[in-house]
Amino acid sequence: xxxxxxxxxxxxLAGAAPNTATAEEQMTNQVEVQTHPYVGMWVTDDNxxxxxxxxxxxxxxxxxxxxxxxxxxxxxxxxxxxxxDDTGFTADGEFVDEDTLHHAGMILRRQR
Length: 112
Prior knowledge:
single chain; mainly beta; 8-stranded antiparallel barrel; two-stranded antiparallel ribbon; 1 helix; 10 strands; disordered N terminus
């Protein structure tokens, strides 16, 4: 699902016949290049949650001393962000301004 905020490049499905992959498999085999202003590190005021939005459409979230506690993919549409964790759960958030992200009941601020 390409939109003005992301460009999708489908990866080749090695050995698979055309159109035989499920939608989830196709999404897993895509690389999303994000073209929004929110790429970078976002942290809670106590620095306990560190949430990095990578330019390739992936995120990496650290919690306390646990690095890479959660990882997955994300898509930004306007000021809204949707997350799909590699373990299967989903979440979302809202950028209330260019330096503030409300996500999962937390307030994260852009780290510069």
